[in-house]
Amino acid sequence: MKKKLKIFTLITVLVSAAIFLIHIINRILLYLSTANPSLHDLNGQYYDWRFGRLYYEKHGEGSPILLVHDMTASSSSYEWHLLVDELSKTHTVYVLDLLGCGRSDKPNLAYTSFLYVQMITDFIKHHVNAPCDVMACGSSSAFILATAANDNDIIGQIVLINPESIVELAKIPTKRTKALRLLINLPIIGTLLYNIFHSKTSIGNEFRNHYFSNIRNIKDYDIECYCEAAHIEKAHSKYLFSSIMGRYINLNILPFVGKIDNSIFIAVGSNLPEGIAIAEQYKEFIPSAEIIRLEKSKHLPHLENPKLFLAQLNFILETENNKRERAEAE
User: Fold this and answer.
1) CA 330/CA 326 separation, integer angstroms
2) Which domains does the chain have, with CATH numbers?
3) How far apart are the C-alpha atoms of 5 and 105, rounded to whole Å?
4) Contact present, 160 and 69 (Cβ < 8 Å)
5) pLDDT higher than threshold 50 for residue 326
6) Closest by alpha carbon to 162, among 140, 134, 132, 133?
7) What are the tens digits of pLDDT across the range 192-250?
8) Cα(first)–Cα(last) distance of the chain, in Å?
């Protein structure tokens, strides 16, 4: 009996020590990720939305355009910072950190696609106060299409940059993905897993393998900003990450596409192997959509080659605005 008690005590001590060690590792990783703040909110404001405060910035004057970043736990409106100055010369530019991302609040809840559709709808109605053009990247593209389908009066032209595959978006949560979400949400072990997936090394690999076409274009500062965005507010973006891994933010867009009559452009990085195939998927269901091939880029052309991206974008916006003005004159 005494031997069993000693073994149990030893196991308890070892488990407690391991948990304490993991806790210390998490604290160190959090400190290293946020020790030199790169994301500033000097020009930012906060929108007190029903589920938390949303950080946003407003720049320039002219017809409004909303920039919506990719849907990852390390994403933020920093993604657009190289476009803002140029776009704000002719537009009122709104850049927004979605809930769970960047400098916005990161509540512990199940993040769903419909949460983001409602969030974007409310932000446009309460802060833009006018129909606006929208640019969105990656998985966030689905939110914009659903928003336009639900309330066509608030969105004008739509530019989707490397949108997520329609097939992937249609996948629903399973027992396995739900269990994974619960694991990531655990206080210590889950936080360690989150920190591993969002370490500076992991984010750097994502830039090299998926985000940028030319690794020489990658700046350490970009990686630091993404790493910081993932760890602001004690790494509570893990709740968003767990919902992403659990497929809670997936959104089958097929029921919405028939309701959309907006001008839609799909911008694809030429060096992203699956990009053109995904764009063709969208065009199959939205025949009026136009595909734009962006040379020398992968998933984030607006961060890797902003001048090339802006040149193509300005042509699109000017052409469509001229068409709109002619139609109104007639």
Assistant:
1) 6
2) 44-329 (3.40.50.1820)
3) 46
4) no
5) no
6) 140
7) 889 989 999 999 999 999 999 999 999 999 999 999 999 888 889 999 999 999 999 99
8) 94
